[in-house]
Amino acid sequence: MKITICTSKIHRAAVTEADLNYVGSITIDPDLLEAANIKPYQILQITNCSNGVLWRTYAIEGVRGRGDICLNGPPARHFQVGDKVIILAEAWVDPEEVEKIEPVVVFVDDKNKITNVEKHKLIKPFSNGR
Fold this sequence. Notes:
Barwin-like endoglucanases; nine-stranded mixed β-sheet; 1 helix; globular
């Protein structure tokens, strides 16, 4: 059995464009893709912090250094320029692999420039002596 886990996240990036007439996908600056270890065509979950909409689509590379976060195709109706989004990358893993995964969180400023990258380790709760 496989389970789906979060492998990385781009936290509160600003939407820079919404192109209804493009075929589909989300265009992301390669600097952000690399920092978050997201591959082109990888399926992503995008949550709009402004309105709560959640969308699944695949990543494509934008122009390096521009800070592109562009929702293409149908999600352009739900994501507007300036909206803050959380972009999650997922993977299917065996449950035994979960403890080995160190998800990456990429923090950005208002222009989608990287301010910090953190790796998160699984923290087990205190056992309270049990």
